[in-house]
Amino acid sequence: MKTLYTTKVTAQGGRNGHVQSENGVLNLEVRMPKALGGGNDDFANPEMLFAAGYSACFDSALNRVISLSKTQTGETTVTAQISIGQIENGGFGLAAELDVNIPGVSIEEAQALTEKAHQICPYSNATRNNMEVKFSVTNN
């Protein structure tokens, strides 16, 4: 891989701690969500941060595919839902569901553009064959 960009974030205290990027832009308290035994859902957590990254990255990949294909669309949106659960070996794994909306094209074209974006998105490439990723594609 030819590196184009690198960033660094430090976590202290794990899921009940703090994360901070080297430039200070990301500077958050993180807590265990209520569903995993935390006190409430008032803080960021690793799954939320992963969902933010995946949705933003996938939307960028999608817009690149759209631009290269010279397709005219409305403004796209990508919503990522990230789940954590126990896997067969007793450890934990993640699953993703991405809701992709590409207005102004047929549903078939929206699905084709989504599949192309899935091939170039760095998050999709990192997770391929490592976790389940489902897509729901709309065009309104």
UniProtKB/TrEMBL annotation:
Pfam families associated with the record: OsmC
UniProt-listed GO biological process terms: response to oxidative stress
UniProt cross-references to Gene3D superfamilies, sorted A to Z: 2.20.25.10, 3.30.300.20
Protein family: Belongs to the OsmC/Ohr family.
The protein, known as: Organic hydroperoxide resistance protein
Species of the source: Chryseobacterium angstadtii
Organism placement in taxonomy: Bacteria, Pseudomonadati, Bacteroidota, Flavobacteriia, Flavobacteriales
